[in-house]
Fold this protein.
Amino acid sequence: MSRSIRFALRGVGRIALLVPMCLFAVSASGSDQAIIKKGRQVYEENCSACHQADAIGKAGFAPSLTNPEFLSISSDGFLRGNILGGREGTGMPPFAHLGEKDVNAIVAYLRSFSTLPDRVAEVDAQPEARGDPRLGKQWYEYVCSTCHGGEGDGYTSGGAGTAIGKPGFLDRVSDGYIRTTIKEGRSNTRMLGFKGPAAMANLSDDEIDDIIVYMRSLSAK
């Protein structure tokens, strides 16, 4: 079974798969102000202690959920999966006790901060990475480990970056999602882009794919 098929099956997380997706019929684009208001209330009760007011996040503690680049490439299924299933091995617990209306409301609230076009389909349609994990390990240690930790452990290793080596992340994202984030970074965060002459490191497409393949090997461990 290819990774793209596994990604499709696991994209919303194990717990999310237990909930019929027909229950999640409300989309951010169709949400009215009442749903967004409800989402803000539920968010403040369950999420703001870590992700801060207006979901702006806190470096080294919890990521921003309203970052424009993050919202433009993150599907509703990805957001729901993280809410319902949490991120095993991190400080993000599952919120499976929330009903589908509350989960939809949180997603609608987060979507209300969107300022960039929806790129989910385009990004997830990118091909799977093909590369050398040995070279990827070298590049990862050089450009990624300072923030994300040597094994992708994230905040628990004392860095400012999230845990990108855990199954709770890698099982829910496509290679295109990782590739786009590495290339473009995220504005107003410590995640800078690594593609282009003005970037932190002008990585080639092959070098970025090497990193992605290496990251996948961390999940396999």
